[in-house]
Specification:
The complex is a heterodimer.
Chain A lengths: L2 H15 L6 H25 L19 H38 L5 H4 L1 H12 L1
Chain B lengths: L8 H23 L2 H19 L7 H31 L13 H7 L7 H20 L2 H12 L4 H8 L3 H21 L5
The chains are: A mainly alpha, B mainly alpha.
């Protein structure tokens, strides 16, 4: 140990011996601050305790994971397109059924709707 | 490679309990104001927990010192701005409210010793007072280097990382600090 280090060591020994000599109020405030700091660390950890539940699947839906978006975004888009297509097909298929039911249930014969004169009469009569 | 485990609240608590008083003393020597020193240490504790709580406990000493030293430097900067405004404003007003004056009785009460042998306690207290004075008179960077390197026992590279300077600068600051302290104490009649 060099002379410089020896002097430093002796000075530090005196300082170190005085570390605990602080007034009660300061000691209390330091202890309170420590507890607050520790509780701020403990709070997120409690939330993190629930993460292992999703350990098996959680990583698959974790979009923040590096590269996750690359895989899941196209899949989600494809699903959305499929759902939209299915929905539109379903609504398209129901229209003819409804139209057929109306024609069959109507008092008028189906030919009447193809008759232009009848349509003209219908429009004129609606104005009356 | 397996990363070190995240620190537990009990590890953080244990580290802070060991460090808080020393940190308070260091801050008090640096800013020469116990209330400000207490605020600095409180902020440093919260910052360590909130920003670096997920780091392994082995990294706490260096991280805490870095936060603490940054907080002390921030305090200096704020004081500099405040002093500038005070100087500017005092040029318009000659009134002096004496807020910053110390109460001698309060100072004496704070320095009161509790030992059994009054003579020994008196001598120790005087030595400590002279060391504290000498430490406070050091340039900020020298004091910072001395405290980190010798009191906190960080190695040269860690001290350089905390101070944001080269290892060579750390060695220079430490050497000058020790020589200045030794000279100052010798002048006061303190034998080391």
């Amino acid at each position: 140990m060099t002379n410089e280090q020896q002097i430093a060591k002796k000075i530090v020994e005196v300082l170190e011996a005085n570390v605990d000599s602080i007034d009660a109020n300061t000691a209390t405030r330091l202890a309170t601050a420590r507890q607050q700091a520790v509780s701020s660390l403990a709070a997120p950890k409690r939330a993190a305790m629930f993460q292992p539940v999703l350990a098996g699947w959680g990583h698959m839906v974790d979009f923040s994971h590096h590269g996750g978006n690359r895989f899941w975004l196209p899949v989600l888009l494809l699903l959305a397109i499929l759902m939209a297509a299915l929905a539109s097909m379903t609504s398209y298929n129901t229209e003819p059924i409804d139209a057929d039911a109306l024609l069959l249930a109507s008092d008028l014969p189906p030919e009447a709707y193809a008759d232009k004169e009848f349509v003209a009469w219908l429009e004129n009569s609606s104005h009356l | 490679m397996i990363a070190d485990a995240m620190a537990t609240p009990s590890e953080l608590s244990e580290f802070l309990a060991q460090s808080e008083r020393r940190a308070f003393k260091q801050a008090a020597y640096a800013v020469r104001d116990n209330h400000a020193a207490l605020d600095i240490v409180q902020d440093a504790m919260m910052r360590l927990a909130e920003k670096y709580g997920a780091r392994p406990a082995s990294e706490f000493p260096m991280l805490f010192q870095r936060i603490l030293q940054n907080a002390i430097r921030d305090y200096y900067r704020r004081q500099k701005v405040r002093n500038l405004w005070t100087t500017l404003l005092s040029s318009f007003s000659s009134s002096n409210d004496g807020d910053d004056e110390r109460d001698p009785l309060e100072t004496l009460a704070g320095e009161e010793d509790e030992g059994n042998d009054p003579a020994v306690q008196m001598e120790r207290s005087q030595t400590l007072g002279k060391i504290e004075d000498a430490l406070q008179k050091l340039p900020a960077r020298q004091r910072e280097a001395f405290v980190l390197r010798y009191w906190q026992e960080l190695d040269v590279s860690e001290t350089a990382a905390v101070m944001g300077c080269s290892e060579g600068s750390v060695k220079t600051h430490c050497s000058r600090a020790v020589h200045a302290l030794a000279a100052s104490l010798r002048k006061e009649g303190v034998e080391l």
